[in-house]
Amino acid sequence: MPVTDVQRLHDKWPLRFARGAALFSNGYSNGVIGAVITLLTREHPGGQFGTQFHSKLLASMVYPGTVFGMLLCGWLLSTVGMSIVVLPVVVILCSVLTALVAIWNGGRVGGLVAGVSFLRCVLGMGVGAGQSSGCVFPSEWTEQDGVVKNVRHRWLVLGTKTMIDAGFVLAAFVPLVLYWRFGEQHLRTIYSLSLGLGAIPASVLVCEFIVWCWWITPKYDNYSLPKAVHIPIWLTLKWYWKSVLGLSLAWFIYDFIMYPFGIYSSMIINNITGGNSSLSIVLGWSVVINLFCIPGTVFGIFLIDCLGVKTTMIIGLLLQAIVGFAMAIMYSQLTNHIATFALVYGIFLSLGEVGPGSCLRILAAKTGPVVRVGGQIYNIAAMIGQVGAFIGTWVLPHIIDAFGGSQTMKGNSGPFWIGGGLAILNAVVTFSLVKPLTHDNMKAEDKAFCQYLEVHGVDASHIHDGI
């Protein structure tokens, strides 16, 4: 079989599946900690968790690891295969070890928080290792001639952001199922298994990679991927600085809003009910709220096809701001009916996925040319976004306290005022700094960027080898 045919097979199903599965695993690993914190709040009442230091530490420590993992991936890993190896192995080991630490800590809060926080930071390195390969390489595939132009962005979103959201939904659903099975008296078992089960989606990646490496690839002795051309990052920033700035700010604000509101959703429901309702109610409504993110991305892809990526992102942000302000104004009325509150809360998160959730990854991955150099623009913007998620998970409890505390109406409505305002700010940033995309934007950028590299002494003649 010719090399080109092997490359088509190489891209056709194994790595595409792995990229989506990697992002699904990332979504579960990021999302499950919210339910775990809620369970720990019930197991250790009296201020040990909730809006206190321990909950913020557990919720946020995965993000520094993710940033470091993305830096490590961009520096050392030049092939998508290596990224797919690093991600599941680290996630599997850390998920299992986290579960063991949680189940064997003997009820000591300090030991549990220290052990789980450290392991989640390491787990974040595995999550970060799969971030760029999970979107940059599929974006290059969508630029191929065989893909219909007016649906290129659609398949990219379905294979990336929708998979992350599906992982978040499962991360909320698994603790609920375990609660139904074990009950109120076995909370430690529930949150330990919830953490440990994160190893399962990562294990699927390992199985896929074993099949590919030991069964398919050895059949083609003459096939190898050429080494990617190194492009200095300062050249990329010099050419794309405005786009990088706009995408980084937009991603920072998006993650600052969406990750804390998603992770703390069960805690917010718990605050509304005063901690008196059954955990099945709290966890169940958390599943419903997170479930709204999936139709958000699906609806977003159809708007993208009709309106374009940049316009869709701005519309989604403005609509999210309107819903956020409405929730803040009518918070007392909404919380009198938990189903209505969960519905509107879910719409708030869903509109975030219609806008930046569906669009940011496309904009970051496809702003640059078709060159496989680690996705420099994407990595920079995504890393800044993870910083926003880290800060957001720490700041949201302080916002609640600043507005009056979790036991007051103003305290719980305050974050929605902030969230709505930041959504408007994000729309302004997007309008001012982010340039619109065409369906074949990467190819349009390719020629100009290669000429730019040649002027600066970089040999671009082999820059497309292995793509």
The best one-word shape is globular
Q: Main sheet, how many strands, which sense, barrel? A: none
Strand proportion = under 5%
Helix content: over 70%
**Average pLDDT taken over every residue:** 78
Explain this structure to me?
The protein is mostly helical. It contains 21 helices and no strands. The chain has helices at residues 3-12, 14-43, 53-60, 62-76, 80-103, 109-129, 136-141, 152-159, 161-182, 187-196, 199-216, 233-263, 265-272, 279-291, 293-307, 309-329, 331-335, 338-366, 376-402, 409-433, 441-455. Helix 13 packs across helix 14. The longest helix is centred in the middle third of the chain and has 31 residues, at 233-263. The two termini are 18 Å apart.
Blueprint of the fold:
Blueprint: H1 3-12, H2 14-43, H3 53-60, H4 62-76, H5 80-103, H6 109-129, H7 136-141, H8 152-159, H9 161-182, H10 187-196, H11 199-216, H12 233-263, H13 265-272, H14 279-291, H15 293-307, H16 309-329, H17 331-335, H18 338-366, H19 376-402, H20 409-433, H21 441-455
Helix pairs in contact: 2-5, 2-9, 2-10, 2-11, 2-13, 3-6, 3-19, 4-6, 4-19, 5-6, 5-10, 5-11, 8-15, 9-10, 9-14, 9-15, 12-18, 12-19, 12-20, 13-14, 14-18, 15-16, 15-18, 16-18, 16-20, 19-20
